[in-house]
Amino acid sequence: MVADCKESNALLLRKIKAKIGDPVSVDVVVAILESIGIKSENVPEDFGFPDSRALASDLFQKLTTTQETSIKKTKKVYEVTSIEKTKKVFSDAYLFIKQYVYGTSYLLAFALQLTSIILYGFSIYVYTGFNQLQSTIVVLGIIIGMVISGGFIQVIGNQISKHFYLKDFLLVEKMTYSLLKKGGISIFCFLLGLVLLNLIIPLYPFKTMLLIACYAFWVGLLFLVFAPLHVINRKKVIFLATFNASIVCLPFINNTSVNIYLLHFIGLFVAVSTVLIFLIVYFRKKRATGVSSNVSFQKGAVIYNNLYAFFYGVFLNFFFFIDRIIAWSSNETSNFFLPIYYEKNYEIGMDLSIIFLLLLAGILEYSNTSLFNFLNFEKYNTCILDMTVYRKKTLSLYLKSLILMLLSSIPIYSIVLYIFYGKWGYNYFFSEPLTSTSIKIANIGILGYFFLCWGILNSSYLISLKKQKEVLKIILFACLVNIVSGFIISRLFSYSDSSYGMLLGSVVFTYFTLKENIHVYKNIDYYATI
């Protein structure tokens, strides 16, 4: 009888293993037993257990223990010595330096543009000789272009990276071209609709709106084609594209017969073309290597399956520019005939604070890489019974990234302070000195961007645990706080105080993403398995 029960249990174990693999909980095993017709009253006689739950508990224990044992067999077991700990420290330091340099490599393009502005007063979408109206056209074009391309940029990052790390380069190529084409057409259609809407509700003169739309299209397309370069680890091409555009345009800046608008569009076209040519050559070479699954995908489904990521990208980019729009629509700055009118001191202040953001972005790059490596390892090496250890490891990684961001922000802020007040700072390179208003706005912006980076760090962990919907809700609420508080404060006091709206919105974004993270960590055994 006992032998029969053991044999029955072994057969049942193999059957459940083949049916569901490694179960998540005892309840799952109970449900499977019921689905295959095993009744609780027959369990004592057939399997030697008092009821079906007792049988399920035994089977669950065996299945998960088998998983844990097999994992341990594949691991190299050794005693951690002081030498190995030292190697781990150096390995982490190397990863940090590598990822920080990689994460900030696009700053080469930024540095090139800044040098071009200092020497020639020109970059691929900046010209210091523009008047206020012309500056309004360019800046609004940049804002609209970055916002409407933000959704596709996020989808490219989410979708393509999955297949790139599996080395399925054929599928990566198909998806890249599909998303770039879809993104380009969507940007064009949106801007066409905006121009037509302006004909019905004339906020700007037709020529002005047409120029805004042209800048928005080319800037949006530029950042769109830059997106795959981040995924395939080819950020250097961003510098190459910017360099090529500068080389083509700079010889013509003193030629009065060449329109500056046209020169900008030519430069942006050259930059976009450089990236597209590189992608064609890159994927052609990659076809011969890696895995080619020949998996087809539904083009519409790619956007639908990443809908939360799409809108998160749109509203995150929108968040960056809300304070500018509110400041430039104030009675202190706006032209009576134009609802949003460029104001130089505010833009300079926020541009200086962006230097802090760009330098701190390298820390986010390192944090995201560490998280990606951690999740990929633990996915195959964590038993369902080890969730307490998994929670501690995840929390430890998060705290390490946060502390690193806090410590790094101090020297980065020191660099920005030198730009404010140093001998070789802003005033050395530009004829008009930095105003106290710009410095005030920059300091508020720096604090706001610090909290925003913290919130983005929190969001990375939430998104990795399938909490995209919650992150989207939080960024929407943060945008609302940014708009309402920025509008009220700027109208009660000064237009420059709209930057406080960005600061408050960033604090709200950080607070709620942190709160959601705490909730997730408390239930990590559930979220890590869905």
Describe the model.
- This protein is mostly helical.
- The protein has helices at 2-20, 26-35, 43-47, 52-74, 82-103, 107-120, 132-164, 169-200, 206-231, 236-249, 260-286, 299-305, 307-328, 344-381, 387-421, 426-429, 436-464, 468-492, 499-522, 524-527, and strands at 122-123, 126-127.
- Strand 1 and strand 2 (126-127) form a beta hairpin.
- The protein is elongated and about 95 Å long.
- The model is unreliable at 66-80 (pLDDT under 50).
Separation, N- and C-terminal Cα atoms: 40 Å
The main β sheet shows up as: 2 strands, antiparallel
- Strand order, sheet with most strands: 1-2
Cα Rg? 28 Å
Order of helices and strands: HHHHHHEEHHHHHHHHHHHHHH
What is this structure, in a nutshell?
By secondary structure, the protein is an all-alpha fold. It has helices at residues 2-20, 26-35, 43-47, 52-74, 82-103, 107-120, 132-164, 169-200, 206-231, 236-249, 260-286, 299-305, 307-328, 344-381, 387-421, 426-429, 436-464, 468-492, 499-522, 524-527, and strands at residues 122-123, 126-127. The protein starts with a helix and ends with a helix.
Key attributes of the depicted protein:
530 residues; mainly alpha; two-stranded antiparallel ribbon; elongated
Secondary structure elements and pairings:
Elements: H1 2-20, H2 26-35, H3 43-47, H4 52-74, H5 82-103, H6 107-120, E1 122-123, E2 126-127, H7 132-164, H8 169-200, H9 206-231, H10 236-249, H11 260-286, H12 299-305, H13 307-328, H14 344-381, H15 387-421, H16 426-429, H17 436-464, H18 468-492, H19 499-522, H20 524-527
Helix pairs in contact: 2-4, 5-14, 6-10, 7-8, 7-9, 7-13, 8-9, 9-11, 10-11, 13-18, 13-19, 14-15, 14-17, 15-17, 17-19, 18-19
